[in-house]
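Hi C.,

You asked whether I'd gotten around to modeling the 357-residue construct. I have! Everything is below, sequence then structure, no commentary in between.
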Amino acid sequence: MSRFMCADLAALEPYVPGEQPQDKKYIKLNTNESPFPPAEGVKRAVCERADMLNLYSDPVCTVFRRAAAERYGLGVENVSPGNGSDENLLHIFYAFLRDKGVAFPDVTYGFYKVLCGALGIEYKIVPLKADFSVNVADYASINTPVCIANPNAQTGIYLPTEEVEKLVLQNTARLVIIDEAYIDFGGQSCAPLVNKYDNLIVVQTLSKSRSLAGARAGVSFACEALTADIEKVRCSLNPYNINSMTMYAAAAALKDVPYFEKCTREVQLVREYAATTLKNYGFYVLPSLSNFLMAKAEGVSGQKLYEKLKERGILVRHFSDERIKDFIRVSIGTRAQTEQFLRAAIEIVREELHENG
């Protein structure tokens, strides 16, 4: 820490992304990226905008916001664009939580704590149930805003729409933020509900289901008044936050429904195949409606399994958090990538169990 850094940031612990190694080629199943390239129309949209990079992008992000609004039958006034959904979360936390605090589960997206640390936001941790699911009743007495990843960022477990509505209706004076980064792999989005409830914000990303992780495009949906507040913050921090190529790529990706449905359906099929195979070989697998699985093998630590897979050129994610330290999180890749992961994981567990008697 330099002598110039603000004192209140001394204890800040930045978010640690999944590995992006450059030293050798890995089967990359650690950051929940799409295994499929962007749609052809997305590629064309990027190329068509390349000649305009000498000009600033549209600060209103009209083409992106309109496409996102049309996706859920909303108005442009219900949509705020982000440079990846992490920026949407930044805008929301900055606008609404600094003087109120926030509550979220003990096992969830690690960026929430980081944002709280950076913005000086107090937070309350609400433990998940023993089966790692969210119990909406646990939030009934909480008056601070609530932030829930759905499906949950580390478990993949989905909270049905009717349960989200219960959460929203528990206290209509309380803001509820639903982070739907993984909603397109089997869940039902709550985005259409934002005009029904003025205390609901829904956040999504185009990184996973739309194959745009490298483009950085996210979006939030909320009633007109909440969105106006979010837009005030966005335009105060960075009014040109979405570059032209990303803006048009995002709009094209949202409009290409057939390609989106083909890719997300394939992820779901491979996910169910992987989950069934792991269970058949004795792994414990959490029920996931995301594009990843959380799995553990009895007698082999999550750290050991992660390390052994990396030695074989396969990257997965391991977290040291007490409740999930025995698990690995594996992104759903192509069928071929998943087959290689399954063979390696099963072999490693057999070898480890044999060595340990």
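If it helps when you're writing up: The first helix runs from residue 40 to 49.

Thanks,
B.
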